[in-house]
DNA sequence: CACCGGTACGTACTGTCGGTATGTCGTAAC
DNA sequence: GTTACGACATACCGACAGTACGTACCGGTG
């Protein structure tokens, strides 16, 4: 007798079906966007009917959330280990930025998470979801820099939002550029410059200008 | 033929009807978003039928573009004169940034232009439209700073995109914050810090020569 | 083995909404 | 007065999200 979990064949089938629906959804949402993707088509690609879809998800938005989570979890693997990697915090933060721009180039991430996420889920719901994913990682990176004294103690939440917005725009620029390689280089240069400007300077200059 | 343009009463009515439709669209798109706004409702608020709507606009997206343009033109008035105002370029640029954040706080601008614009119109079409509006203004401001030597000669297009993205995020943060006054102060502080970091420093930096 | 409860779907239908085709009325030109 | 046309209204179609209900099949119980 099996002492461990007795995963019934039934549940296995069910899980497979659900995964097929999610995969189909990610693909179609990425290609055609939320509005121009029909649930019948999603179901058809997964070789089931709408009945199965509505059994597994609450509706179109529910399916979208599942697709969102799917894309994010896949992304988090790569991103997390880079940021949490060993070495000087400044270096790994920079590496994290570059990695995140890379991630943003993924069509699925860009469309589902960055562009349509806030619109479909509503900004507040999207923010909550992001808390446990990319945004959370980025913020903890910024937090590390502030703690380790690399950044002036700006409000972490706000600064991270600004960075997040800038990086998303950056990725979109690269993705839609006719010459992505050059665009990518330019973007990296600009971002490095911005972040370098934020770095705490040894010379004290409290509210210097004017 | 008449030398003076005789604006017929007919055309006047027509223009009024069109304007009523645009106003109705701006209101409903702002409140419920693009997807959850029905054309019948838009027409009803304008006290006409869908026939009139389709006479004036190519469809739902056409109506959205008109609403987009309406919001942008209203905004441009305030924004343009600030940026093009007299005085030192750095000061007026900073003033422009603050003004733009203010603009972004307008619910209509935030929802129609910032959030749903890229999704509904598609990013490329949105970018083209923005060229003649806020983004264009922001970029010319950045260009001025580079020309006047206040900013290192970073690629203007990219840098402006980054700024644009950061500012939009900033505005969203303020708008959804439970304490908008504090959020606004924090945001201003962060932005000032970022921009200040970008400012060309008179003393040559060890890493950044020239 | 027979029976049964529930899960995992499939099928058929409804309501809403974007879009179209067509009709109508008033104004302006001749 | 007739004609032409612009500015709408009305009626309808097709697509699609969501619902109601039926069904097959698995797993447990006696």
TrEMBL record, chains A, B:
<protein>
    <submittedName>
        <fullName>Transcriptional regulator, TetR family</fullName>
    </submittedName>
</protein>
<dbReference type="GO" id="GO:0000976">
    <property type="term" value="F:transcription cis-regulatory region binding"/>
</dbReference>
<dbReference type="InterPro" id="IPR009057">
    <property type="entry name" value="Homeodomain-like_sf"/>
</dbReference>
<dbReference type="InterPro" id="IPR050109">
    <property type="entry name" value="HTH-type_TetR-like_transc_reg"/>
</dbReference>
<feature type="domain" description="HTH tetR-type">
    <location>
        <begin position="15"/>
        <end position="75"/>
    </location>
</feature>
<dbReference type="InterPro" id="IPR001647">
    <property type="entry name" value="HTH_TetR"/>
</dbReference>
<keyword id="KW-0805">Transcription regulation</keyword>
<dbReference type="GO" id="GO:0003700">
    <property type="term" value="F:DNA-binding transcription factor activity"/>
</dbReference>
<dbReference type="InterPro" id="IPR049484">
    <property type="entry name" value="Rv0078-like_C"/>
</dbReference>
<dbReference type="Pfam" id="PF00440">
    <property type="entry name" value="TetR_N"/>
</dbReference>
<keyword id="KW-0238">DNA-binding</keyword>
<keyword id="KW-0804">Transcription</keyword>
<feature type="DNA-binding region" description="H-T-H motif">
    <location>
        <begin position="38"/>
        <end position="57"/>
    </location>
</feature>
<dbReference type="InterPro" id="IPR036271">
    <property type="entry name" value="Tet_transcr_reg_TetR-rel_C_sf"/>
</dbReference>
<dbReference type="InterPro" id="IPR023772">
    <property type="entry name" value="DNA-bd_HTH_TetR-type_CS"/>
</dbReference>
<dbReference type="Pfam" id="PF21351">
    <property type="entry name" value="TetR_C_41"/>
</dbReference>
